[in-house]
Amino acid sequence: MQEPYAEMAPASGGASPRVAFFGSYPPRECGIGTFTYDLVNAYDAIDPSRLSSVIAINDYGQMYDYDLHDYQGRVRWQIDSDELQSYRDVADEINRSRVQVVNIQHEYGLFGGPDGEYLIDFMDRLQKPIVLTMHTVLPRPEGHFREVTQKLLDRADAVVVLARAAVPLIQNNYTLPPDRIHMIPHGIPNFTRKEAIRRRTKKMLRLGNRRLLSTFGLIGPSKAIEYVIRALPDIVAQHPDVLYLVIGETHPHIRQREGESYRNMLIDLARELGVGGHVRFNNRFLSNSELIRYLAATDVYLMAYLNKEQIVSGTLAYAVGCGKAVVATPFAYAEEMLSGGRGIIVPFRDSAAIADAVNGLLGNRRALLQMEEKAYRFSRPMVWPNVARMYLELFRYVSYFRAPMHAAL
User: Fold this and answer.
1) Number of domains, the chain
2) Same domain for 156 and 215?
3) Is 409 within the bounds of a domain?
């Protein structure tokens, strides 16, 4: 594995390469879209004279206007996820453009074809260096799924992972030279941590001085919020002023299949347990500024995820980046981010353990503030300006040294 340091490319002091970022993009409501938006803005801030382009991947049949009301004038190309020819057409247009590097934000389920194989056609057709950012790396890939992923890795000039735990997963399951794997952390906002900000933000949100627990992101069964709600009676018994905020709309794909059944189950459960007045749902896809505002007001951030092998979580990165005390289950990214006293790990499906951890933090303000400080200090290298510069050096590296790998395939 290599780190994208400045000395990797002789062009380090020169102009920023012209990059096309390929992923979902706002107003599409998607975590990858938020990531792409933040990375594009942080990258362009380094050299505003050479603005990047965006290739937006859209759900089937869903296209947006290029104007300020939809894609904010940033998106140059759009691809229909399930229309193979659109991948090929856009690749041809990029080949004729001044773009020097293409950065693909890869997530399973985002791209069309069986197991996302339409992306292979795009990469085969492209005549520009490719940096592939892998937001998910699975531990035991099999069959066609593994075959597609291997082909994507083969065609990338560099592969970025967002957590160190992802590196051995790639090395153990796929064939990829170690010097093409690069770890660049998930970016976070450059948040100022002060106790006065917490108090002021609570008042701004009309929450008074209540002690706030929160969970945010696209809501679905994988977040296992029911285990937090089951912990609330024991928490409320010791801290009657507690309010648990569940912030975010239901994941669009889950809503399409199941409607609001999961959210309704959570509401009913809170009422049955007598803690309905201590849970508040904000059923919207919030902007970054709104999310940061709620995080600023939060006392303890909660993640009861069930998937032990989850390698990355943007929500956890944001919570740590905002200097929050976090209680989480032992999924891979949580264990990496919260070690060394930066958070508390509790067993899966254990509401009693959640209650004990939260009560311990709310009952010991000094311990909570010390945990916040450790999380905040650990996360400073992850602020978006730093992350964007890591990508910049990697883009310089591949544009200077690498011929497109797929040209030899």
Assistant:
1) 2
2) no
3) no
pTM here is: 0.88
Please give the chain's pLDDT, 409 residues, in tens: 554 433 344 444 567 899 999 999 988 878 899 999 999 999 999 999 889 999 999 875 555 555 444 455 679 999 999 999 999 999 999 999 999 999 999 999 999 999 999 999 999 999 999 999 999 998 889 999 999 999 999 999 999 999 999 999 999 999 999 999 999 999 998 888 877 788 888 998 888 889 999 999 888 898 999 999 999 999 999 999 999 999 988 877 778 788 889 999 999 999 999 999 999 998 887 777 888 889 999 999 999 999 998 899 999 999 999 999 999 999 999 999 999 999 999 999 999 999 999 999 999 999 999 999 999 999 999 999 999 999 999 999 998 776 455 544 4
Give domain status of residue 321, yes or no.
yes
Residue 1 lies in a domain: no
Domain coverage including residue 366: 195-381
Largest CA-CA distance found in the chain, in angstroms, rounded? 66
Do the domain assignments include residue 114?
yes
What is the distance between the alpha carbons of residues 94 and 203, in angstroms, rounded to a whole number?
49
> Are residue 150 and residue 218 in the same domain, yes or no?
no
Is residue 337 within 8 Å of 354, Cβ to Cβ? no
Query: Which helix (H) or strand (E) element contains residue 247?
Result: strand 242-247
**Pair 178, 233 in one domain:** no
CATH number at residue 54: 3.40.50.2000
DSSP string computed for 118-176: HHHHHHHH--S-EEEEES---SS--HHHHHHHHHHHHH-SEEEESSTTHHHHHHHHS--
